[in-house]
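Can't attach files on this board, so I'm pasting raw text. These are the components:
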Amino acid sequence: MWLMGPYILRRLSLSLMTLLLVSIVVFSSVRLMPGDIVRTLLQDVGYDPAREAELRHELGLDRPAYEQYFVWLGEIAQGDLGVSLWDGRDVTEMIRARLPVTLELALSSIIVAILIGLPLGVLSAVKQDTPLDYVARSLGVLAISVPNFWIATLVVSLPARWWGWAPPLHYVSFTDDPVANIKVFITPALVLGVNLSGSIMRMGRSSMLEVLRLDYMRTARAKGLDERVVLYRHALRNALIPVMTIIGLQVAFLLGGSVIIESVFSLPGMGRLMIDTLTVRDYDVVQGVTLVFATIMVTVNLVVDLLYMVVDPRTKLT
Amino acid sequence: MKNTRFLGARASRRTFLRTSAGAGVGAAAIGLVGCGDDDDDEEATATAAAGAATATATAAAQPKRGGTFIHSTSFLSHLDIHQVSYAGVSDVTLLVYNRLVRPTVKDQLPEPDLATAMPEQPDNLTFIFKLPANAKFHDRAPVNGRVVTAEDVVFSLQRAATDGPTFAHKGEIRSIDKIEAVDKTTVRITTKQPDAALLASLSLPPFIVFAREVLDKFPDLKAPDAAIGTGPFILENWSRETGGKLKRNPAYFREGLPYLDAVEQRTLDPDPAWTAFLAGQIHTAAVPEAEEKDFKANPKFPFAESGSHATAIGRIMNTKRPPFDDERVRRAVGLICDRDASIEFQQFGNGRASVCLAYDHAFWNLSVEETAKLPGFGKDKAADKKQAIALLEAAGYSKSNPVKADSVAWSHPSRQFGIPALEYLKQELEQGSGGIIQASLRPMEPTAWLDNEARGLFDFTTAVWVAGIDPDHLLSRMHHTVGGRNYGRISDPTLDAMLDKERATFDVKDRVKQIHEVLRYIAEKSPTAWLTAGPGVTAWQPFVKGYAATSYARGSLENTWLDK
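---
Top answer:
Structure tokens for the assembled complex are below.
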């Protein structure tokens, strides 16, 4: 394990370089998009070049782009993500308000996905080519094939029209009312979780099948080990690495915000924030949110790589 | 940016994607019934009557006190109504603040709100308002329940008129020359020229009354702590992410009101809001446009027509660029547009033909029969198209030398302003002109589109607009040379003079006649080809009573009560 120190340091420095690159790409691309925050702000006042110039100066957007970039970078180095050009709110505060929603949705969804996908995958592998395997595989394909936003829309709108019932459509934070909060998240977590469970199930199954055919499994059985020990201690542990990769990617994806699910269930998460602010070209917020997304992505990848070594100490640090 | 906005603002999210925002309500339907001289079509009148009947029935019952009224609101940036489009923000501000005057439910003409009566008008330039002695601000720091004075009104209106780049509503009261506190309870407003629309403008949500001390303590009115007014409800908490909670103002100057103990506002987009309404989670919502017709035919809830999302659809032509700098080409487009087909396709069968004025402008608008006599608005489309082709040929265009129009719109699935609208438009123009007009379609992401439109980088676009209280609000903004939303770059001295004249006419009957002349002139010259006006439909739960708000948002809810 002592080898992990330099490895982590190397990965961290690579991560920082990635984030720097992301910052340049995001800063440039958001400004290259047609339309800008100043003209959006002036929409209600009526377009007037003099007003535009005045407001551009007021917001510091008349300075050269590279200057604006270094100012922003300097602020980030001090832990300040800037303020919204649209309404003057602190970007860090905005993200702080939205991140818990996205985190809760992501974690609850991934728990549902693991609880459904992993056992189903293992069972399917162990009972290969039995009716149970066929059913499980069909369910897995179905879960992957049906878009989650479609299921979400049906789940939300049809019961309301038929029976006058809908899942709660108003976000309540856990600290305000834990029970109400759980009720709010149950349905979106199930919708997302079931959708994600398909790929976990399929990856779990194929990985298990691969491991079950290896020599050491035969040896374990020949030693007279209990079948459960063989499966869970020897097979599953080794089969988990590719599954973890999938789960890691899914967590990173979910933490980036599930825009459509957040919209359908009216959850004020990061995805909604990104879309709302991108629509008005609120540069600092878009940049801040993207940087947070990128940081999450990089961190999750790093954590998953480190977990490989915990699950399988034979994994080489490369 | 939900922003469903009024006053010549583009109907945005609610009407289309994000919003509907929540819904403005409006009981212009009631206004339709109230205006006996209106000759609207029978179906509209019948459905309006249904809404009105519901409202009348509820008004007759004995109001009960208590309860929490729950409704949806859109994602708002902040609460400083002077610095933002106000449809969404007015959900909060109309409950927290009063204005000098407010629009009536019946016909949207102004009536006293904070003022004790309509202003004295010793001449056409002077308006003298009296304030009540018992109107107090909410009992919160820094005002702590003190009495409202004329100085507060002066300060508030001056702040609304701030000449800053983000102050969005100063143009609405640009005719004001001076605002003075004559004494503690008397305010005198003097205008630079006669402005018959001023009182209607002052009844708009941005012209709230608040205390100077608030801006001494806070940098602006954006934060919920700064939302201190004289209104029927006190803001307890608010967040952009989830909405707000308001409690009854026990010291409200209208004794005995409001009936509700509290109001809860939940941040929801339009579609989830409608679902939440059907599931009983909220008490009112806008009926989705595609479902309005069916809903009205078989209403399961009380409802009213019109409101903040009542819309007018038009084709904006850039009059400063070829080919639409040629009046003959614009007139040809006006003739080709098929209003009946547009009602069916773009308004989902729920609307009427109209020149610029929105559905809730029935009081001011030409009747359906009179509108049908305007060029391009009649039933004989074959004759219109023949005339259109003749105009195009006279302008030098033919199949071998076609009119090429660069058409832009939002890349959105809306039939009113999105890609389907553009495709519909292309087909209509090409078929109607016998192939002489060839439209190229350029769907754009919303902000890019608005940017192009604002800078005149287009030939042609289709748009949907929601209107203000007064017809001049939309007419002038869209057609006057100095109009804030004159995206077609229209500059017609005759039209400017007509608009200036109607705005200076105080006699309502005379003004209606002049506005009708303006509408006829616009239909004839076709600087913009206007098509239709559609109502919004707002429904509420059967136990909600006294819910007859003005045409924007929900009014103050001061007469609303829950029968349960």
